[in-house]
Specification:
Shape: globular
Largest sheet: 10 strands, mixed
Number of helices: 22
Low-confidence stretches: 1-28
Mean pLDDT: 92
Radius of gyration: 27 Å
Number of strands: 35
Strand order of the largest sheet: 20-18-17-9-8-7-6-2-1-35
């Protein structure tokens, strides 16, 4: 039976990363480093060293040359010093206090966490921090980059230590759980016992419904999605596997990718991309293996509903006895507008499950201690413990030579939020839902999700699962192969596909990762979004349709069936709009019907707009290529429909009155489809949505028939770089996240990011074609601020050099030798 003392809270909370630190550098002064950095085209660094510390040192230095300020800012936030160093306006004192509590003290984690990590992981992280520090010392704060992502002369720049870097890495892992905006706000909102809320369950249910669905949607990061396609020996023209990795990540901040190649001869040789500030490759390839991820919307946490002692709100029932709610007070500094430094304090409260949470930010009826029903909510986060395994797992994956070895690395379950996809040169593939998922069985769900907890689960479509906290029977369980002490599902319980066929996933659950052989019978916590027998994203549907067409040789790419690297690359850039493929013909017919008999309140000017937009849609090629004319009209039309009928939570239109053919779980890739013109309200909605599309475009000075490349672009030093691709919500495989502004869809916030197509031939060198859509550097003065963006715009690829002779052929500049 677990207890939850302050020390235990501290250890459990930072199993991923160490504590906050105010010191500048605590690394061993006797440590020596030696590494070389060779840059190839587009600024890709190839770092080589003979030991893990030196490898981190070279990587940290090379990374800092391109993006120092990005990670420096994130470290300040993660270490709980934002208000101290950035001031009250630039920082966030509440968040600082939150991280101070989660991470505990430096001393606690030097002994309880960091010292327990594999030595190579410690060395790699410490070396990376030292490499960043060397760059800072050589450059000087007065010469750091300027611009939106810059930090020249910033007061918050300082030399970091490995703990600062670990805290940043831990914060990344908690992004889908404890550090997700509304969850974090709910944890910060707790201020101890308050007067009881007199509401009833009935009063909560109706007004909380929309708010809880909204909360569920916020657990999905809008700029984070992804596609992945695997083709094994039975699905390729060569017999070797082909992997497509297409993560959809932000184009700004710590969610950006950074390309690199890291080598310790004879021990570690991997290329690909890392998230900003990570000292290891997150998505990439080696001589024998390649892998990628898609964001997996399984459960990362559960709430526990605590039955409070009516005579003492600091006690809760557990197996017929009262347990104490514990408290801990932390402090953080804040620089005021007047230049004074103030110390703030905050008390956080915990049950043995985890922190107490107040969902009043979702709906006031869910606020208070106790709640209206006399109870209280606590949260247990699976990713508080993920990081002790994460770095080691990623290193082990990159040292594998086949799928069996790759799968062995996954027994650590160190993946915080992703579906796993891997392929090897032997033609084998692997898919698995192997992220950090609480061990809550279907039987437990049926037994333990009751009362208010059942209401929360139902209204959030199981995005938020709350269990009965009064019974030990509702504790997370474990498998024989669960990582010790985690209470996560082990590898043996996961949805897995092996062999030589095909796999595709675009962020729905495991269910249809092979659309011809659905995976069924798994607990709801393994896939609440697009789960078993649920309507799928349009992006999921187009993924599997493209796979089927390619296997048959029935697409426009080639008449030769099956995949090779070239056909996979062409599939990536097809830019079909699946929503148009299944609705536009009916939409154009309805446009005529509406125009012939419009509602009385529709003006002549609006009818002229309707005529113009429908004329453009009739000739549009139903793609989002740079020369596609009319994509903007359909984009705004589909957005208008989704505002009225869409389930933003599931990112699909579920209203059966709209569809001519309703969703059929036995045909999930081809249904729903068509628009039901026999429903008068649907005809009116379509007509008005088309008019709205035209009005929005006109008000933002966007011509209806302008080429897509003229209206969707990324601004780089006064240049508008055209961007192909479009909204994933309308079934575009190559998703781009961007809002309509005056003049067009300017400066995407995310979407297609680091893309790789990897395969093998008889040589020792993997064949990897990649593109980094937002380019390597955030520094406007860098030649690599927009160079790969232009390549992406032209639908070109970068052959990533892996072997020595290829690196030498693509080298730019001199090789840099770093020693300390």
């Amino acid at each position: 039976m677990r207890t939850f003392t302050r020390a235990a809270v501290t250890l459990a909370c930072v199993v991923l990363l160490p504590a906050c630190s105010d010191s500048s550098n605590n690394s061993d002064s006797n440590t020596t480093y030696s590494a070389t950095v060779t840059r190839t085209e587009f600024g890709i660094p190839h770092i080589k060293a003979d030991d893990w510390g030196s490898l981190g040192y070279g990587y940290g230095y090379a990374y800092a040359q391109d993006n120092f300020c990005v990670t420096m800012r994130e470290i300040v936030i993660a270490s709980g010093r934002s208000a101290e160093l950035m001031g009250e306006d630039g920082g966030d004192i509440d968040r600082d206090l939150f991280f101070r509590f989660l991470n505990g003290t430096e001393e606690e984690f030097r002994s309880n966490f960091v010292d327990a990590l594999p030595q190579k992981v410690q060395d790699l992280v410490r070396g990376f921090a030292e490499g960043m520090n060397r760059y800072l010392r050589e450059t000087g704060v007065e010469n750091l980059p300027e611009g939106d992502a810059g930090c020249r002369n910033a007061n918050w720049v300082y030399e970091i230590d490995d703990f600062g870097l670990w805290q940043h890495l831990r914060r990344i892992a908690l992004g889908g759980s404890s550090d997700q905006g509304l969850i974090r706000a709910g944890l910060i909102a707790v201020n101890g016992p308050t007067p009881a809320n007199a509401s009833s369950l009935g009063e909560v249910q109706a007004p909380a419904a929309e708010a809880l669905r909204s909360l569920g949607k916020t657990l999905r990061a809008d700029d984070r999605g992804s596609n992945a396609i695997l083709a094994g020996r039975d699905a390729t023209q060569t017999g070797s596997s082909v992997l497509l990795g297409n993560p959809h990540q932000p184009w700004q901040g710590s969610g950006r990718w950074y390309e690199a190649h890291l080598t310790i001869p004879g021990e570690y040789d991997v290329a690909g991309a890392s998230l900003q500030g990570l000292p290891f490759i997150g998505i990439g390839f080696t001589k024998d293996v390649a892998w990628t991820h898609t964001v997996d919307y399984a459960s990362r946490f559960t709430l526990y509903e605590l039955k409070l002692n009516p005579n003492d709100p600091m006690e809760y029932e557990y197996d017929g006895q009262w347990r104490k709610i514990t408290s801990a007070t932390v402090s953080a500094k804040a620089l005021t507008a007047s230049g004074e430094m103030e110390t703030h304090q905050k008390t956080f409260y915990s049950s043995h499950y985890g922190m107490i949470i107040d969902l009043g930010g979702v709906n006031p009826l869910l606020a208070g201690w106790p709640l209206f029903n006399g109870n209280l909510m606590s949260i247990r986060d699976a990713n508080l413990l993920t990081g002790i395994r994460s770095a080691g797992e990623f290193l082990q994956k990159a040292q594998s030579t086949n799928m069996a070895e790759y799968e062995a690395a996954l027994t650590n379950v160190g993946n915080p939020v992703f579906h796993e996809f891997a392929a090897d040169r032997h033609g084998d593939i692997f898919y698995g839902e192997v992220s950090a998922v609480p061990h809550v069985t279907t039987a437990q769900y049926n037994d333990c999700v009751i009362g208010l907890s059942k209401t929360i689960a139902d209204l959030s479509s199981n995005a938020i699962i709350s269990l009965d906290g009064s019974r030990s029977a509702c504790e997370w369980g474990e498998d024989a192969d669960s990582p010790p002490g985690t209470n996560l599902f082990g590898l043996s319980s996961r949805a897995i596909i092996r062999g030589g066929g095909t796999v595709g996933n675009s962020n729905n659950s495991y269910w249809l990762s092979d659309a011809t052989k659905p995976l069924t019978g798994f607990p709801v916590v393994m896939g609440w979004l697009g789960g078993e027998n649920m309507q799928q994203f349009l992006r999921t549907r187009i993924t599997h349709l493209m796979i089927a067409d390619r296997l048959n040789g029935s697409d426009v790419i080639s008449s030769t069936p099956k995949f090779d690297a070239q056909t996979m690359k062409e599939l990536m850039y097809q830019n079909r709009v699946h929503a148009a493929e299944v609705t536009l013909d009916d939409t154009l017919d309805i446009c005529k019907t509406f125009a012939d008999a419009p509602p009385a309140d529709v003006s002549a000017e609006e009818l002229d707009t309707l005529d113009d937009v429908c004329s453009v849609l009739a000739t549009w090629d139903r793609h989002v290529n740079l020369d596609s004319r009319g994509a903007q009209v359909f984009t705004e039309y589909w957005a208008a429909l989704r505002r009225e009928l869409g389930d933003d939570f599931q990112d699909v239109i579920t209203d059966p009155s709209f569809w001519k053919v309703d969703f059929d779980p036995t045909h999930p890739i081809t249904t729903p489809s068509g628009v039901d013109a026999s429903v008068a309200s649907t005809v009116e909605l379509v007509g008005r949505s088309l008019i709205t599309a035209g009005e929005r475009l006109r008000s933002n000075h966007v011509a209806f028939d302008a080429p897509w490349g003229d209206v969707q672009f990324l601004e780089r030093n006064g240049e508008n770089i055209p961007i192909h691709g479009g909204a994933g919500t309308m079934g575009v495989f190559g998703a781009i996240g961007v809002n309509l502004q005056d003049g067009g869809y300017r400066n995407p916030t995310g979407g297609n990011s680091y893309i790789q197509v990897v395969t093998w031939d008889d040589s020792d060198c993997p064949i990897a074609d990649t593109i980094l859509t937002h380019s390597q550097s955030t520094d406007p003065a860098s030649p690599h601020y927009g160079d790969q963006t232009r390549e992406y715009s032209a639908k070109r690829w970068v052959r990533f050099p892996f072997c020595e002779e290829d690196i030498a052929a693509a080298q730019i500049g001199e090789t840099l030798t770093l020693e300390q």
